[in-house]
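Recall that a protein's primary structure is simply its ordered list of amino acids. Everything else, from secondary elements to tertiary packing, is in principle encoded there. The following example makes that idea concrete.
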Amino acid sequence: MAYDPHTGQLVLFGGDGGNGDGLADTWIWDGSGWKNVTPATSPGARGSASLAYDPGTGQLILFGGLLANVLGDTWTWDGTTWTQLTPATSPSARCDAAMNYDPSTGQLVLFGGSNGSPYLGDTWTWNGATWSQQSPATSPPVRAFGSMAADPATGQLVLFGGDNRTGMLADTWIWAGTTWENVTPTYSPPARDSFTMGFDPATGQLVLFGGLAPNNGYYDDTWTWNGSIWTHATPPTSPPRQVNASMAGDLATGQLVLFGGYDGAAENTTWVWQTGSGYLLVARDGGVFTFGPGAAFYGSTGSLHLNQPIVGMAADPATGGYWLVAADGGIFAFNAPFYGSTGSLHLNQPIVGMAAA
C-alpha cells in the first residue's frame, strides 16, 4: 500500500489471500472506505511486492513479488491504469524488499529482499526510466522482510529490522543520498521481521506496528520514530497480533491507515492510527489520573506512605512512561529509567517541580 500525492489516493495492490493464492486486485481508500477499481491493464497476481511513490514521475512504482516464483518486473500506476515498463537495467527478481522514496533527494530507493534462497543487501535507485545499482561506502547487512519508510517531516528515509537468515534484526539505518548511516538510538523496538511501518501525517512521525518475533510469536506493539528516538506507544486499542500488514499515511485525510495482515488467518480489517492526545494529573499522594487515548497508566504511589508529598511529574519521551518527584527530591519511576534523586540529601529548600531532559 502506498500514498499517491498526484491523485490524493491510498492505493493497495495484490497480496496473499491466505492460501498461497496471490491476488491481482487494485483498491483505493477514500478516507472512510475502500473502492475496488478495474484498470484496463494490471500486474499479474502476487504477494510480497514492493510499492512506493516516485516523486520524480508523480507515479507509483511496483517492483517484484512472489507467486510460484520470484518476480522482477517494474510497473507504474498513474491513477487510472497500470503500465509495465522495460528498463534497460533492473534489480534481480526478488520479493520482500524494502522500497520507498527519499524526501531529501527525491530518489526512489530499493534495498535487499529475497530471491528465494540467499537474502540480498544491494541498493538500487530509480530515475523514472531505469534502475541504477548504487555502491554505498556503508551498507546495512543483507536482509528481507524489513521495512523502509519516508519521513517528510525530518527528510529521512528510514530502514528498520528484518531477517538476514541467521537471525532477526533490530537495527535502524538512514539513507543519506549516497550511503547508509547506522544510527543507534537509546531505545529501539525488539528484533523482528514482517512488520509494517508508515508516516503519520498528523504527528509528523513514523509508526511501526506488529511483526514476527524471534520465537515465532506475533507482536502487537506500536512504536514511533521522531527522527532520533524510538518510543514505545501504548494505545488503548490496537490491531491484533499479526504479520505482513500494509500501512501508509494518507496525506489527503491526515490518516495513517493499516490494512490486512495475518494472525493465523488472513485479515481484511482496516485500522486508523489516532494520535496520542491526552494528559495525566498527579495528586499530592502520588495518585495518577489519565485522560485521553494517549495517556497510559503505569502505576502510582497512591497506596504508599510518603515522607514528603509529590510535587511534580514528567513524561519520558523515550518509553512513554513517567516520573513523580516528592518535595524532598525522591524520584519514583514508572516505565521509565531511574537516574538518581536527592531523597537522601539535606535540602535548604524543598523541590517544587521537575522536567524531562
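The chain has a mean pLDDT of 92. The chain has two domains: 2-273, 277-357.
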